[in-house]
Amino acid sequence: MVLQAALIGLFGWLSSSECPYIGQCAFKSAITGPIAGGFICGLILGNLQQGIIIGCAVQTIYLSNLVIGGAMSADMNWVSYVCIPLALLANADVDIAMALAATIGVLGAAWFTFYEGACSIFYAMGDKAIDNNDIPAMKRAYKYWPAILHFPVRFFVPFAAVMFGDKFSSVIDMIPLFVLNIGKVLGGMLPAVGMAILLAYTLKDVKMIVFYLMGLMAVKFTTINIVGVAVLGGCLAVLYYIFTDRPAAALANGADGEEDDL
After folding, report:
1. How far apart are alpha carbons 194 and 191 in whole angstroms?
2. pLDDT, tens digit, for every residue of 116-152?
3. Residue 42: which residues within 8 A CB-CB, separation 6 or more?
4. How far apart are CA 59 and CA 229, in angstroms?
């Protein structure tokens, strides 16, 4: 279990936005989300299928997670590498995992805000070191002090979540049934909130809501799975492009041709 906890803690550190030692932001972005976290944690803990199921379910909550002005609503690192291992080790169902993710995500965002505030002190120290032409002090302020601050949290919090995750199941057993039912209801509502936020940011024309409703009805009232709905949506997008933009361009080209003939 120690090795498993260390591996998940390592991925938790490598996927954190504060980690400066990976080089490419694309790698960190690829392993930060709940889907990737569910796959990695499920693979390490020997429950790959449930890890992917929980990761996909939690991902629906944060379809449009944005960081505006340095303030984030939820920390994906803790959602992926703290919440999902806890849910897997406690054998929690998907609804409880989603409710847990919302809580842990907010705590992670609070930590990130504290970290950014602390780093502003380090950066001020670095600026002062530059004024004094003290290069070693500048390197310590810009590179080492932030790393010393974030590594214990990003590594040891996921590590502790795995080491003591089996005890979390006993905590769930102590919670009254009606509280668990409330958590399941709230957890079931969270994907709708994530989808609504995504639509609010991406839907530029209100009339386009009909395509979303068509996909929702196809999943709900037919036997088409989500992959089939995605293919159907792609076909509708191509048809929409053909019958809206192309005729206007063809009409303009036709008008130009008539003018050339005249």
Report:
1. 5
2. 788 888 888 888 888 888 888 888 888 788 878 888 8
3. 48, 49, 50, 51, 52, 54, 55, 84, 88
4. 19
